[in-house]
Structures are given as C-alpha cells and as structure tokens.
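Example 3.2
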Amino acid sequence: MDEEINNSPILIVDDDAALLQALPQVVDLRMKNVQVETTDSAQHALERVKEFDFDAIISDIKMPGMDGIELLAHIRELRPDTPVLLITGHGDHGLAIQAIRGGAYDYILKPIDRDAFVNALQRAIQTRQLRRKVTEQQLALSLHAKSLERLVEKRTSELVSANATKDKFLDIVSQELKSPLSNLKGMTQLMLHQLERGDATTAVHQGLVDMERSITRTEVLVQDLLDTSLMETNLFVLHRKRYNLVDLCRELLDAYTTRAVLSLNCELLGDPIVVDIDKDRFSQVLINLLSNARKFSKKGSPITITLQQSGYEVIVSVQDTGIGIPEEYLPNIFEQFFRVPDVRIQSGNRPGLGLGLFIARKIVERHGGHIEVQTVLGQGSVFSVVLPVYVDPTVINQSDPPPSLHTQAVWTITH
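Structure, written as tokens:
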C-alpha cells in the first residue's frame, strides 16, 4: 500500500522526547515518501496547522497546557479533512471513546505497537489523499458544469440568432418571390380577360413576354437559394482560371446589354489586368450589381462601370444615380448579410436588397476579396468589388504594380 502514498507530510505532536524521537524513525524505516515534522507543544502544532495542510496528524492526548482532545477540536475547525490519530494509555478507554466522538480518525494505545501504528497512519494518509482527490474532482466537475452552462447559454444565443437570421432570410425570400408571382398572376388574369373579349393577340403576346421575364426572375431566385445552401454547407466550389479582367468585363457587359436591350458606351479601354477567378461566378456578381443599379435608377439615367487597379488589388465599381440607400435599411440587411464591418458602408441600404448581394459577397470573399459600398440618399450608390491581382509565383523579377489608383476601363450603360 506504500506505493499509493506520495510525498505525504505528517505532523507528530508529543511532549515525550523519547517518543518524539522514536516515532519518526519508525515512519522512516517502514514508510516511503513520507515527510515527518515534529513538535512537543500543542500550541506550536496549532500554529503549524494554520500555515500548512498536513496529510495526517498524530498527537498524544495527555500533554501539559492544551491536551490532545482540545487540539483535535481546533484542528477540526481549521482542517476538517485532515485525519487526526490520538495516542492514549492502554487503560484510558474513556479518553479513546472521547477522542473518536470528537472526530479523531483513529486512536493508538500505549505501549505503541509499530505495525499497528504504521497501518493506522497509512490508512489515515490514504484517506486524506482520497478526500483531496474527491475535492479536486468535485471542483473539476463544478468547473465543467459551469463550462457546460456557458456553452448552453452560447448555443442558445446562437440558436436565437440563427432563428432571427432564418426569419429575416425567409422574409427576404418571400419579398423576392412576391413580385414575379404577382406578375404571373396578373398577366394570366389579363390574358383570360382578353380571351373572353376576343381581342387577345397583342395582350397575349405581351403577357407571355412578361410571364417569361417573371419566370426567369424566379429561376434566378431558386438558383440563389441553391447557392446559399451550398455556401452554408461548404460545398460551394470555384472553378478558377486566369483572365484579363478588362476583356472579361467587356465581354460580360456586351452580353448583358444585348440581352436586356440596353445602350452600352465604352469610354476607356486600358491595359490588361490579370486575375484568377471563376468566370461564371464573377459574372453572377457583376450582373447582380448591375440589376440592382437598374432597379433603383430612373429610366434613362446612366450606370457607370469602372475598372481600376491599386497596387495588388483590382476594383470593379458599379455606380448609379438612383435613390441611394435609406438609413433605416442598414441594420436589417447589411448587418445581416454583409456583416459590418466586413463591408465598408457609409450609409444604409435600399429596399429589396438582400439575397443576391449576400451571395455576391460570399462569392467575392471566396476569391479572397471584399465588397465596399458608398451611398448618398437621393444621389445614388457605388458598389465596388475588390479582388486580388494575379501574381505569377514563377516570375522572380516581375515589376511591382503602381500603388496609386489607376483607371483601366470605363463603361456607361443607359437604360
């Protein structure tokens, strides 16, 4: 049983000098890793108990001044978990019983039997060590319980936040769906009405055009929802290649304005800027920004697309002269989907923005970039996509790009 005892300090208290010398020798011979401290005074012993936590205390009952029973009472107050063994004469059964009732761990009869003494002391030390382990485990369990409580509180808070996010997300989706569905319903009712009147050719043609436009918008929304799901589950994959962004923007703008029957004017076409991007996803971002700019601009007002380079960053800006962004929309949409301050916003948001810009932001971030927004209510907004310029790691002596902002291309769309 000695192996379980490790560096155990004990205190022996006795006014008998011979016993005070003999007992430490017994402990030293019979027990390993036990440090013995002795004192011939109960008062001094009490001072040591106040200063130090012993694994066991052995004390004679009959001592001048403070006796062992009184010392036991003080130790029980100061160190209730420390086992105390009291030494009593062979015929003092009353004192032995009094000692046990007073809280002594055990008693030892004189003349002292060495084996009985060592066995009692071993049990006392092991009891103290077990009590200490129990206390430590209880403390660990208490700390773990508090940690679990904090974790539950955190997860509950996250769940509340997630539910709030879900509610806002569903609200945005419902608003996005409402417009194309209302158009489809209105066109269907109009065509039925015209068919009843017998004058249906023109109305049916226009109705089918509008219905196709609404269906296309719904398809885009469904794709946006699928993209959102992929992003949230980390299944969103980019297929990146190197492109000259000047040529790519020109190609995308030509296709966009042709499809939407818009006027496109190229005001400046400068040097190439090479980027490593997913062409289809970048097109999705640019078209989303252009569509939002058109949505909130008056018919005939210009939308300006600017391509600039500053050091190792390229900036694609879409500027409109529309209604700008009302302040009241800032907390509800940008904090939800752009996570301020990831996006540098000077003022608010405009009605109807949400899912598309959320996806645009995620796509740009997956490319290692970010989106910036500047807006003035009533004067329009500028949405800027900031992306890293491609740097060929195999080229050692490549020249650094100019740190100042340099415009490489400018286009204007009139709708």
